[in-house]
Amino acid sequence: MIITTTPSVEGKRIVEYKGIVFGEVISGVNFIKDFAAGLRNFFGGRSSSYEEELVQARQNAILEMQQRAFQIGANAIVGVDIDYEVLGTDNGMLMVTASGTAVVVE
Question: Model's pTM, two decimal places?
Answer without folding.
Answer: 0.82
